Amino acid sequence: MNHARRPRRILVTGVGGAPGLDLARQLLQLGCDVIAADANPLAPGLLLAQVTPRVLPVAGNPRAARALVALCDELRPDALMSTVEAELPLLYELAEELGTLGARTWLPSPAAVTAAIDKAAFHDVLTRHRLPTPLTLLPGQADAELTDDGREWVVKPRRGQGARDVHFCWTRAEADALCGLVPDPIIQAKVDGREFTADCLVDRSGHASVILRWRLLVKGGLAVVSSTFADEEVSAVVTAALGAVGAAGPCCVQGFVCDEPAPDRIVLTEMNMRLAGGFLLSQMAGADLVQQSLNGLFGEPVDHARLRYRPGLYLTKFTDTLSVGDLSTLPAHPYALRATSPSTGDSHDNHPTT
Question: Is the whole model's pTM more than 0.70, yes or no?
Answer without folding.
Answer: yes
